[in-house]
Amino acid sequence: MKQRDKDRFHSLKMADAYNQMCQMLVPGYDFLQDTLINILKFEDIKEIVLLDLGAGSGIFLEKVLNEFPDSKCYYLDYSDDFIQVAKERLRKYDDRVTFIKSDFSGNWESKISEAPTVITSSSAIHHLSSENKKKLYKKCYGTLKEEGWFFNIDEMKTVNEYAYIKNLYYWVYHANKQKKQLSDDDKDTYLKWMDQFNNWKKRNVDDIDKPKKEGDDIHESFLAQLDWLKEIGFVETDVFSKHFLWCLIGGKKVCGTF
Ligand SMILES: C[S@@+](CC[C@H](N)C(=O)[O-])C[C@H]1O[C@@H](n2cnc3c(N)ncnc32)[C@H](O)[C@@H]1O
User: Fold this and answer.
1) Residue 147 belongs to some domain of the structure
2) Is residue 111, in this structure, part of any structural domain at all?
3) Is residue 82 within 6 Å of ligand 1 at its C-beta?
4) Is 58 a pocket residue for ligand 1 (Cβ < 6 Å)?
């Protein structure tokens, strides 16, 4: 059977709609990203060289570049369409951003000239199988500068299966509820976003018991993912914040070689 919506990120229509609507339609979107920014401030990282994996339309990088005027960023994504939208959004920070077009499984580390002090990702890594998530986490550990931090804000399972299912339904409830807040200008874009979101609902709610393939939403428990980070060598691992389906997990690299 053909995989539902396999190429969804390779569409300018999708990239545009996601860019305009995600802050309104993804529960806790800004809250979790702003929490991550606060952690970076609290940790007082002297030199921020930040790599964002699956950086999409560049909303998080825009916040980082704005909040940390001396920071430099690497943007990584495999979608030409998202890259196009992000280049427009980040135009004014052109000299501080390096764009890398690559799949997570590609040799992207060879395109990085300065070891990142922070690696982040939001709503992207959950598309990988467990095996490939672990591989990517390992690669992040290897790529980070010593004392560097890794953070992932992502759709994850929680400690109880029923609570997880309610978190899936919460997104559906939230996205429908937001319709009331829309300006007239946003109505068309909202409908485009909801078209796409209905496929998410089919894959994750209606077909919850069907097996998942790489590229689907492969939700993994945040506890299991924290264990992987620890096994790899990250310290100070934690779930720093959680909002329904989304968890902000991370850890710090201590030893230089891996
Ligand atoms: C749901 S969007 C999230 C974008 C952004 N991080 C945000 O939170 O607004 C997922 C992004 O991950 C990218 N992505 C998904 N799978 C990828 C892969 N295997 N390699 C590189 N990028 C990937 C997509 O192109 C898309 O831009």
Assistant:
1) yes
2) yes
3) yes
4) no
| Lowest mean pLDDT, pick from 9-13, 49-53, 102-106, 143-147 | 9-13
Instruction: Give domain status of residue 129, yes or no.
Output: yes
* Ligand 1: centre distance to CA 119 (Å): 14
- Cβ(154) to ligand 1 under 6 A? no
pLDDT band at 257 (very low <50, low <70, confident <90, very high): very low
- Model confidence at 158, in pLDDT bands (50, 70, 90)? very high
Number of Cβ within 10 Å of residue 257's Cβ equals: 6
Give the model confidence (pLDDT) of 28-69 as tens digits. Answer: 999 999 999 999 999 999 899 999 999 999 999 999 999 999
With tokens 């959680």, the residue in question is 242
pTM score, whole prediction: 0.96
C-alpha 195/C-alpha 21 separation (Å) is: 13
The domain of 60 spans 12-159+214-252
Is residue 26 within 8 Å of residue 94, measured between CB atoms?
A: no
The mean per-residue pLDDT over the stretch 13-29 comes to 97
170 in any annotated domain: no
| Overall domain count for the chain | 1
Residue 244 is part of a domain; what is its CATH number? Answer: 3.40.50.150
Q: Residue 128 CA: which ligand 1 atom is closest?
A: 19
